[in-house]
User: Fold this.
Amino acid sequence: MGRFSDFLIALGFMKKKVNILCVGLDNSGKTTIINSLNPNKVDNGMIVPTIGFSIETFSKSKLNLTVIDMSGQGRYRDLWEHYYVDVDAVIFVVDSSDKIRTCVAKDELEQMLNHKDLKKRKIPILFFANKNDIEDSMSVADCSNALGLNNVKTKNWYICSCNGLTGDGILTGFNWLIGIIKKILI
Amino acid sequence: MMMQKKDEDTDGDMFQRIDKSTVLQEARAFNEYPINPKKCQQILTKILYLLAHSEVFATAEATETFFSITKLFQSKDIPLRQMVYLTIKELSTIAEDVIMVTSSLVKDINSTSETIYRANAIRALCKITDSSMLQSIERFLKQAIVDKNPSVASAALVSSHHLFNKNKEVVKRWINEVQEAANSRGLATQYHAVGLMYLIKQHDRMAVIKMIQNYSSGLRSPYAYCMLVRYIAKILDEEDIDGNARGLYEILEGFLRHKNDMIVYEAARAICNMKNVTSKELYPAVSALQLMLVNPKVSLRFAAIRTLNKLSLTHPQAIVSCNLDIENLITDSNRSIATFAITTLLKTGNEASVDRLMKQISGFMSEIADEFKIIVVDAIRALCLKFPQKQTMMLNFLASILRDEGGYEYKKAIVDAIFDIVQSIPESREFAFSYLCEFIEDCEFTKLSVRILHLLGAEGPEVSQPSQYIRYIYNRIILENSTIRAAATSALAKFAIKIPELRERIKVLLTRCLEDVDDEVRDRASLYLRILDDEELCKKYIVNENTYSLNYLESSLQEYLEDEALRKTAFDISKVPIITKAQEKSEQLRIKTKTAGILASSAMNSAREPSPKKSAMAESIDPQQQYAMEMEAIPQLAALGKLFTSSTLTPLTELETEYVVGCVKHIFQEAIVFQFNVRNTLNDSVLENVSIVMDIASQDDENIDLLQPLYCIPCNQLLYDQPEKIYVVYKRPQQYTPSVTFSCLLKFIVKDCDPTTGEIDSEGFEDEYQLEDLELSIGDYVAPAFIINFQKAWDEIGDANEVVETYMLTAATSLKKAISSVIDMLGMTPCENSDIVEDRANTHALLLTGTFVGGIPCIARARMIYESSTGVTLELTVRSPVRAVCEILSNAIN
Ligand SMILES: Nc1nc2c(ncn2[C@@H]2O[C@H](COP(=O)(O)OP(=O)(O)OP(=O)(O)O)[C@@H](O)[C@H]2O)c(=O)[nH]1
Ligand SMILES: [Mg+2]
Assistant:
């Protein structure tokens, strides 16, 4: 980044590029949530399980966002780490109606936090407790407990409940993330 | 790719000194932000360059590079994205986890904006997909096939073509989309769609025929039509033309009137290649080709003349009408066209035109390549035999080109031609010998010198002034290498034996040979000096007109050497059949005719003109050689000795059944091998331990016990659509040639198998499958043979053992049918195109030759009369040096 472009960004003339990595178990709703954030996407109800990954680029809140939507399926989870190096923020999606697998989610989270490329870096993590519309789904507090978030001391994190299908709650979490990013980067 | 081109211009040595580790370092730039598309493209180009030059990338290196390349999906730069696809395709076989770009590619394929890289994305996607993933992308491919953008549809169709080999079942489900694509407006799309549709239906002949009929009009792509023509040709080649395929000929004929040259040519060629084509059917095709002969396009003229040239071998009379146009092509500036023109004319031309043709040939002989010269020489050889009166001129010509520069194959062709002329036209001998003598004075090919010396020895003494050759032969003994000296010694001795007046003088020369430095030369000289003193020995060893059947001798000797028990006693030469020298020559001629054919077609392939027919080479490979090689690789079968002859493939099931089986019968000296080609068409089952149980179903032969089953070589595992071979071996005494009907049963253990993963159940059950009966008939014991002059061979064998039989072939409804069934029953080879019969004729003489198992020559004449009330009356006359063979063959008609 040249000095000049930093300057332009500070003045708000040029949008800064931000890399966001979106992870979480399969079927948790990552692609659904990213689509609802993406102003270029029309909802055609055609969301299929992601194979590998998919990169979405769009602008929002004066930032150029590159969101890497990873697949949550077991066979692709090893691939997440390839994208840790140059991320500015992480979105971690949990299916709050899937109590049984929260321990798997917790496990994946710990592995990620202990990865050499992320461990030392102060990057913000946004947790979505998704699918809050489903009956019997866990509350934010339950999710937070199940994931052991209270023990996460080294990172700046925030958890919020949301509904990927209607978009409820997504912006609350997203705005928090943007606030942090702008503070760190600019 | 435009970008890359510009780079090359400005930075010409970009590709010099590219080093893998440096490039991999540079590839880190993929992780940088902002992405520099131009720089990244260059790096990708370098990676592709390295891969294309077979630089080895370790899995880890490739995987790491692959992952950094995935970062480039962030960039929206179109050329860069295309380079990314290309690189992903190349890395897909080396790097791990390549399927992780699936969603990214699907996203590009589905992008609504008309981006030009959608087609590239489809190709990359199909390349990285494995068959377990295919189902998840199926929907997108189906959509792409019917996409209104032709490049997208074509990419999807071509990719499906590749996927078909990996997962047939899934691709078969797309048939409706493929059908829709075939009706699309894109020319390439139509072509690709028709190709894929054929691939899907190819094993269902009725469906293919329907498809051909359906598309025989209304398509727009000329390439698609050409494909149709080829499919038709394939069916016509498999099927008896009388049946269902009759209508297909009409479609071909219709294509001859198409306004696109390429289609017209394809159709004409397909008709010319049809089996048993009649002159009426040929007529429109030949007329179409005739028009092309005067076309300004070189490629068309070449294609047309090449096809006519091939046709002239089998149907010389059919192309006589084109002779005038062909003559004009002799002066064509394209020498390949001129060569084909001349050789065609030589085959069809009349005596009067020969002189003129020969002059023209001499004019450009030095301008063409060796392989074309060989074609010319072969044509002249044939011509000389046709017009013996012209032999002086031909020989002059051959002699003059013999003096020119040329490689071994070319010189050999000339010498072979002269030899043949000498054999068939004895009057030409003196003339020919003087040329050959002159040639060996200065011949750089030992093999040719030896052959010429042998010929001089064998036939020189019979010419009017034999002494003239002695000097030439003796000069060889003084000047040449030891191989040639030995041959010359033998030649001299033959003169001495046959011409008593010369004997004493030659003895002096032979005595000098006793001093030779080479022991072979000395040995021969002393042997001959000894024999020369004894009239009896001379007769026995040298003048003898008979010889052993060399094939038979070779195989019996081999057998003798391999068998401990046999070797205890001396080898018994009296069991080896004795044949006359004339018969030996016929056998040599057969081999020569075959190799000449191969030479001609390989020369055609190497011609620089675009070759419209790729399979020419494949055709020239003799299936029997192929079989022999396959069986020699199996120790049990290799022990049976040399393969005598193989039948064609007899289907034992319908083509559309669960298991498709066909059989080829191989005759050995003392065994019969039944080769079963089996194919499993069920994708959800696997057969194991597959064997064939053969039983004698019917025979009228009390000696049948002599035919003893030895063993079956089963096939361990028969996977879906992977043909395998099973062999069943029977032993038979040498002279015993039974006709038998066998019942055949396929036995196996069947196991279920998952079509998508290929996983096989551990449990299976035994099952069997009844096949159609298999006939072993007398025709199977006869190997093809080739002769040029039937009458001569007929007279040479003589009527000593002749057998004549008369039959009523009531089942034959035409002469054509009778001819093909007689050929089938006897297994013999038709000569002089006598298997072709005029449409309206009602009498015919079919001339046949063959070699009966044991290497015994046989020759037959079948006279036929057709009457609509009674069918065909056949009078069959068989001749052979062995009486039993005549009897066996004349009884083979039923
Ligand atoms: N009821 C309900 N369903 C949701 C919600 N969010 C997503 N879904 C559904 O959950 C399913 C999975 O959503 P995806 O976005 O494909 O999940 P993903 O995390 O991207 O899954 P992978 O790509 O396989 O890792 C889809 O059928 C969505 O319609 C939600 O808030 N409520
Ligand atoms: Mg997803």
In short: The radius of gyration of chain A is 16 Å. The first strand of chain A starts at residue 16 and ends at 24.
